[in-house]
Design goal:
By secondary structure, the protein is mainly alpha-helical. The protein is about 65% helix and about 10% strand. The protein has a three-stranded antiparallel β-sheet. The longest helix has 22 residues. It is globular and about 60 Å long.
């Protein structure tokens, strides 16, 4: 490995992201889920939405959402219903089992988050959050794909 690669922030971020995804995958597997499905479940937890709304929220293409919802439907975690005036809009909602699974995801996320941040103190954790958001903006098109966070709210956290 070259010295420049060893010092690469991007590589460090990639390695950390892969480890995080692997750890989440282990924990999600215990719930019968695959990585990515948890995001759909958590997004639907507060209210049903259309497939298009879900795709936009998750920042993925509609076929990806369709595939994910299809798998979650087979597992009995979501339902799909035609809606709208012309019946073409499909509303997706969590089933009772889906609501229970979505609620259980908070514990999974918190466990992995604690492992991720275990070696950082509160100040470092806050600084890391801010730096990652700032770096994300640098990669996005003028920050359009990055959730805006109120700096004052962040400072209070």
């Amino acid at each position: 490995m070259t010295k420049s690669l060893e010092k690469s922030v991007g590589r460090a971020l990639l390695v950390t992201a892969r480890l995080h995804r692997a750890r989440m995958g282990e924990r999600l597997n215990a719930l019968g889920l695959f990585p990515g499905q948890e995001q759909a479940l958590k997004s639907l937890q507060s209210a049903p939405m259309t497939m298009g709304e879900l795709a936009t929220l998750l920042r993925v293409k509609p076929p990806t959402v369709s595939k994910t919802i299809g798998r979650l439907s087979l597992q009995g975690l979501v339902t799909r219903e035609g809606g709208g005036r012309d019946g073409r809009l499909v509303q997706v909602a969590l089933t009772e089992n889906g609501q229970k699974t979505a609620a259980a995801l908070d514990a999974v996320w918190n466990q992995v988050e604690e492992e991720l941040l275990e070696k950082l103190d509160a100040k470092e954790r806050k600084q890391l959050r801010k730096l990652l958001r700032k770096a994300s903006k640098g990669l996005s098109k003028a920050g359009a794909d990055v959730d805006e966070v109120d700096d004052e709210a962040e400072d209070a956290a």
